[in-house]
Amino acid sequence: MKKKRLVIRTVILLLLGAAVAYTLYANFSSDDIRKVAINEKAPDFVLTDMEGNKHQLSDYEGQGVFLNFWGTWCKPCEKEMPYMNNQYKQFKEQGVQVLAVNINESDFAVNKFTSRYNLDFPIVIDKGEVMEAYGIGPLPTTFLVDKDGIVIKRLESGMTEAMIKGYMEEIKP
Amino acid sequence: MKEVICECGHHNPHGTVLCESCGKVLIEKDKDKKLLDMRYEGSARRSQTYNKTIIDKIWNFFSSVKVGVWLIVITLIASALGTIFPQEMYIPPVMPASEYYEDQYGWLGQLYYTLGFHNLYSSWWYLLLIASIGISIIIASLDRGIPLYRSLKTQRVTRHEGFLKRQRLFSVSEAGSEDQTFESVKEKLKAKRYRIREEDGNILAEKGRFSRWGPYVNHVGLIIFLIGGMLRFVPGMYVDEILWVREGETKVIPETDGQYYLENHEFILETYDKENSKEEFAAAIDDKGMVAKNFQSDVTLYKTKGETVHGETPQLEKVRDDSIRVNHPLKFEDLALYQVDYKLDELNQMTFALSNKETNEEYGDLTIDLYDPKDTYDLGNGYQVEIVSYFPDFEFDENSEPITKSRIPNNPAFVFKMFTPDKPEGEVSFVAIQQTIEPFTDNEYKMSFKAVETKDVTALTVRKDLTLWVLALGGFIFMIGVAQGSYWNHRRIWLRKVDGEVWMAGHTNKNWHGLKRDIASVIDGTDLNEPADQLDKKE
After folding, report:
1. How much of chain B exceeds pLDDT 90, in percent?
2. B402 in contact with A at a CB cutoff of 8 Å?
3. Which regions span the lipid bilayer (chain A) (predicted)?
């Protein structure tokens, strides 16, 4: 009798506790983060760069991809772009690709920016669809995608050159 | 834990106040009481009686009504605090929340932000409070509902003398022709839809027991409502996003996995016209200046054909044309698009003329698409204009350098280089709205502003809510419980023969006046004494 009571109470409390824990968890892993889950396959996309070449994410399997979302008006993006360029030159031969996705700006703005900073990595312009698929909030946002196309990290702030170097090490195949 | 065995032979759970079967008072200190506390039928609902393990302690904490009331009070206070200043999602996006609250509301605002009240309703502690109320409702209901059900199910017809005389309505009558009296009382009780049970010639008449379940039905409704609230956090159940679409633009609709696109043909804002309105409205129109009549977006919904990878230009298939107005959403699948906001006259194109400053002679026009400017504009005859820099949302930064705040052309500015036959190396001019700077020399030529083309932008809420029916069901059950508990009463009348006397007692959970009237009418014409209200006697 006493034992049965304890079991019933424990089961009910555990069920209620699980429901509460799930609600809290679901509330804090916000929608956007759920769109691109860490340790899962990055959503595939295809965008055209400033030279007219198409870049499809799935074509880069076998290489690590440093996927950066940015805008020309965004100060921290502007600051980290030259660092990314330096590190890109170091890691290009080691199988790390940089893809910089501009958020819906004009070709004019992107071209001016690219030539001003002499950027070598491909820059593609998204009209908003890829941004929606990746649930981009603040800029810059960077995803580290490994050689199997799996998202390893989501970074939502500007980076120093040392940080970029460390991240590229992480996704080096 | 020991069971309590009553003299009637019934085994009661530990902690029982009144025997579930005969109603005898089992707790010593309650035996001196004149009247019984009939809540929960004196059942062993307070599990505080067991307090052995940590599980029992948690259980008893949530079982307490006192704790439940405090949880509700704290939640109410917290909810009120969240309305002092606007929540983060409602503040205009002019500056980060960390600065906004201090800027707008001073040190109080800063405190508000620091304490996290700007996101109060989704904070972990607020959710925990709500969850605790839910747990408290469930446990308190289980702890009271089940013993109450047991007591009412086990109750015997022949109740203990001590139980009867401690009822609020009680009388003792001389027995005479009691068999005849009982028959007549029974008939009248039946006519009043009482259910009659008999045992050894004693009577229990009962009606409306189901009203006792009202609070528990009500709690079930509340729990379903809370589950509905919880479902919002489950992916795919609830969507609430905003979509800005410029006139002429086709955009992907969020949360459709790139399946649906929306084209905005035109945004329409209609206002009431003074001439065509009745006289009494004309005054209001004069007073307000403009009274909106209609906000409308004429749109086309498209679905993508075949498989497309994100970013690829999709093959669009028209689904239908529609006009979205306030309260007339565009609905497809589980989603609805509601008209929610708008922005009139956003700059889209600007036209300039290259002209001579002295003579004002013009050498041709150029029209710049502010969303897609070109590098150079050739005006023919050796006249050409190059855009050196473009700032869609121009301002000067702290170093007096021109920068752009965003990609939206709210305040466009250009650096032009003007090539003319007599100035083949070009003249540089910085042109913003109402402002021209010539950084190097006095120019001979200038860019004169000619015209601007604007477009309206509509804002639509993308809404999906699959939890609504759960909330409606919960609310409905809640109301059933309220009605059940409020519009019906649980009335019981006992008649027992004790040593040549007839003892009569009555109990109801509410509306004692109704019970008294019932009793008065059933004993009318018999020699039974009308039960006195022992609550009156005490005073």
Report:
1. 39
2. no
3. none
